[in-house]
Amino acid sequence: MTDFYDELAPLYHLIYPDWNQSVAAQGEKLARLIDSEWPGADGQDQGHGVPRKVLDVSCGIGTQTLGLAALGHAVTASDLSAREVERARHEARERGLDIAFSVADMREAHTHHGGGFDIVMSCDNSMPHLQTDDDLLTALRQMAACLRPGGGCVVSVRDYAREPRGTNLVKHYGARVEDGQRHVLFQVWDFDDEGRGAHYDLGFFFVTEDLATQAVRTRVMRSRYYAISTTRLCELMREAGLVDVRRIDGAFFQPVLVGTRPASTAA
Ligand SMILES: C[S@@+](CC[C@H](N)C(=O)[O-])C[C@H]1O[C@@H](n2cnc3c(N)ncnc32)[C@H](O)[C@@H]1O
Predict the structure, then answer these.
(1) Does the residue 265 lie in any domain?
(2) What domain range is 136 assigned to?
(3) pLDDT tens, residue by residue, 139-197
(4) Which residues is 47 bridged to in the sheet?
(5) Residue 266 in domain
(6) Residue 253 lies in a domain
(7) How far is Cα 253 from Cα 264, in angstroms, rounded to an integer?
């Protein structure tokens, strides 16, 4: 899995038609969601737009981290892929943003980062890289422990209830032109058990054409996902000690699952 994202790191922005615009848009949407879900600390109104202490446990190249930091939030960020963290660090430097980056497995988030965060998040379908309920529960328990009492957990995932099962499923991402090269991006999904399983193997294809010479190069990065439902993920969030867990639609480009660390107990 780390190989997948290590290889993807220099190309990751191509997934978006305009990554910089998505960084800004996702940061704004998440900031709005955080303000509306957790307006006050321990019952005290913090007010909207107040900087939060945010931990992103799967920052990748920084799509959400950079957007939130640009709005003034104090962001700490980690990811399993060293190459992605390296690129995120570079992107932050380019933007003059002060973000503490490190390499860490979200299953060790609390061991690595400690507690006291207002918000802990894992966005854009990162958690389904964990292949079992046990691993997801370990990660969610560690994430909950990173929160101060009353702090909020934010998880955004694909809505797998809406994704057809099968094999040879092709998902098109479109074409991007950059520096004289045209990249055509698509994924191929193969669900286990002849297309009926809960897990799938994914190939992410980048077909790159040099527009001057028409020379073509194809790269494929492979990974595996657990197509967990948002209902099951919400159950695991509750089992991890979070309360007021629910799914929010329409606030972000994916469903967002939110939960709160109880004010009075150790999560
Ligand atoms: C689809 S990317 C999203 C990254 C980032 N949130 C973004 O939107 O740019 C999924 C990320 O999850 C990370 N990841 C997968 N398993 C992880 C784990 N166990 N701990 C931390 N990060 C993990 C990958 O390295 C990758 O950066």
Answers:
(1) no
(2) 2-159+229-260
(3) 999 999 999 999 999 999 999 999 999 999 999 999 999 999 999 999 999 999 999 99
(4) none
(5) no
(6) yes
(7) 33
Q: Given the DSSP bridges, would you call strands 53-56 and 74-79 parallel, antiparallel or unpaired? A: parallel
Task: Give a yes or no: residue 136 inside a domain.
Answer: yes
Give pLDDT tens digits for 49-79.
Answer: 789 999 999 999 999 999 999 999 999 999 9
Identity at 243, one-letter amino acid code: V
Percentages helix, strand, coil for the chain (3-state, rounded to 5) are 35, 35, 30
- 178 and 63 within one domain: no
Record the tokens describing residue 45, joined without a space: 């109104």
Interhelix angle for 63-70 vs 19-37, to 10°?
70
Cα–Cα distance measured from residue 152 to residue 163, given in angstroms and rounded to the nearest whole number: 28
Please indicate, yes or no, whether residues 53 and 79 belong to a single structural domain of this protein. yes
Amino acid sitting at position 47: G
Residue from 30, 79, 107, 121 whose mutation best tests the ligand 1 pocket (most atoms within 8 A of CB): 79
Q: How far is the CA of 84 from the centre of ligand 1 (A)?
A: 9
Residue nearest to atom 12 of ligand 1 (CA): 126
